[in-house]
Amino acid sequence: MKEINEINIDRKDSIPKDLILKYLGNWYWFILLGVIGMGIGYKMNVFFQSEYEISSSILPEQNTEGMTDLFSLNMFGNRSNVENHIEILSSYSLNRQALNNLNWKVYWYKKRLFKRSDLYKDAPFNLAFLDGAQNVTGLPVSVKVISDKKYLLSVEDKVKVNGEKQEIKFEQEGLFGEPFNNAHFHFILNKVEKVGIDPKDEYYFEFKNLNQLALTYRRKLDIHLAREKADIILLKIRGGQPKREADFLNELCDVYIQYNLRKKNQASENTIQFIDDQLSGIVDSLQITSRNYTNFRSRNRIVDLSQEGDMVAQRLNELESEESMARIRYEYYKNLQDYIKNSDQLDEQVIAPSVVGVTDPTLNSLVAKLSDLYGRRSTLSINAKETFPGLISVNKEIEQTRQMLNENLRNLINSVQVEIQNINNRKSQINSQLSRLPQTEQAFINVKRQFDINNELYTFLLERRAEAAITKASNIPDVQILDRAWPDTAVKIWPKTSRNALLGLLLGLFIPASVILLIYNLKTTITKKEEVDKFVKNSIVGEILHNSGKLELPVLKNPRSPISESFRHLRTNLKYLLYGEGHKVIAVHSSIPGEGKSFISINLASIIAMGNKKVLLVEGDLHKSSLNNFKVFKDLKKDKGLSTYLINHDKYEDIIIRTKIKNLSIVFSGAQPPNPSELLDSEKFDEFINRARRQFDIVVIDNAPTFTVTDSTLIGVRTDINLYVIRYDYSNKDQLKIIRDNEEKGLFKKIVYVLNDLKSSGHGSYKYYGEKYGYHTEARSKNWFQRLF
Predict the structure, then answer these.
(1) The CATH number of 529-784 is which of 3.40.50.300, 3.40.47.40, 3.40.640.10, 3.10.180.10?
(2) Is the pTM of this model over 0.85?
(3) Which of 189, 485, 522, 650 could tie 249 with a disulfide, CB 3.0–4.6 Å?
């Protein structure tokens, strides 16, 4: 036989079938744990707090009008950027404003089994705050109704006060509608008449810190584009109370719309204020010049100018008007230049160029671009750090735009200075013509000129103010709400009843499957015939079925049983192996106690004797007698035996005892000697074997366990067949290699194997014996634990 170096038997081919049979044999565990797991998954709503997801959507309008329009005053909202909308919506300031508008300073709850219920808008109580009172936040306060007028507040918890944990514990009664005061709380508790109070329910409330709550809601918010190429912004939030989360989303959207509209109106309002300030000074000048003009005409009785004087006055008025507008532009350029140099923002105080009549398209576009860049940087700064790549890129673009704007302003300032100088030169020429006119006409022209200049400037500013007012009135938000959040549209995301039921079912099935698989892989005992047959190469001569009737001699007590038939099968196979003259001695071995060696020996001897063969059963274990314990031999004398014969205390004829079983005699082990091994390795024992061969047809020796003592090897070399007993689910696989090594070393003669305790599984040999010969199948005796293994 080829040497086997590893005892790990190849089970690759038999694992799937064997494992499937193991699963099928434990089907009830799968059903039981599967149903339990599915039930637990289905009932998770009872044990866990439900969580819902609710959403709303807004559409930013891509506004392209801005500073390029001559009369547009919407300086800081010229372009709607979707990313900016998302960042602003998720900002702390807007979330804080929304919570402040909702006034969520107190949360009411009702305790339920394993969870709490948020009583948003359904609380049976409400709190009124006392002026200037401070209440500890984040501390659950239990409320128990004592009577129609009294209640009991109780607190036992720890809370952070000034950064340190502090334990607060008290019980205090209060009156509904009356102030409640102690070291931690100051408020008035009222009952809500429309909401019933169940005395069995336990209610409690908690004061909230709106600053911390705003941070919580920022983390809960999920704001993103509805689709990759769409401009629609989707707002989602999760929470345990759909009504509360819907109200928050709607309020956040409303706050953002007001914020957006306020930013758009800010430039118009500043322009109107600027024009009003200018008009207040011009009105006084206009009144003075108008009064002077009227008085001069009345005093000098001048109705109109001469034709030459009228032409000179008209030309002077035009030049004065041009100079006034040029100086306004000059002052605007200088102020804007100084502002850009000294400020890192374009805030709401900056007036649009179109207000002062500046129509230069380059200047308008650069101011609009710089304003947009500052707005983008302000938005990014809400959540991004200075090292954020997007913020760094915007800062670089701002610096480039500022440089371009400064260069443009320098050119415009030089240009307007040249323009003013040209106007002054032209005025000098006109003044020389004016000096040739009469003195009275010259004075009249100067008075009229002052009046006309103030009147034109007044008219110009009134027109600009009307335009700014129209722009403000026509402003609409850059965003509109597409879908408001509705509690009815909330989607339950946890726990998902159907999914959890399925997961519970799978987990229930997984537990027995994994346990069986683990036991199957870790099991070191022999579980089936193939594990032995692959190792010993067709040396198995029989399989003895499980002794479910617990009979010592089933071959006699129940000869029609399958186990009896399995012994007959073993007897037949041994008969062929013992073919030949003098081949009569069978030694029955086992590696360790408990494998059924003595049971096999007595039943094998009995079944051979029932075939009209003279059989001698020898108890070869001189260390510990086991045949003495069989009830069938209880009336026999056991003081004489093999040990007393080997020490010459008794004769051969004296130790041979006939039993009640026909053709069966027995030799007990006798008194336990101090040197069993020396006695078995003696010529006296050889003499005993030879005399037994001559007197009996078959000699069966019940040997000592081979792993316990060395006596078995002394007997094994003197026998014709060594029958090794391997017990299912008991014998270890490592025993096979040791047994085979002993045979290869010559410690035993021919070794064959018998597999003991084959249990019924509705298939295999057990079923074969029962059906083929018409015997009654014995009842299954394995309990649930044994069947699992």
Answers:
(1) 3.40.50.300
(2) no
(3) 485
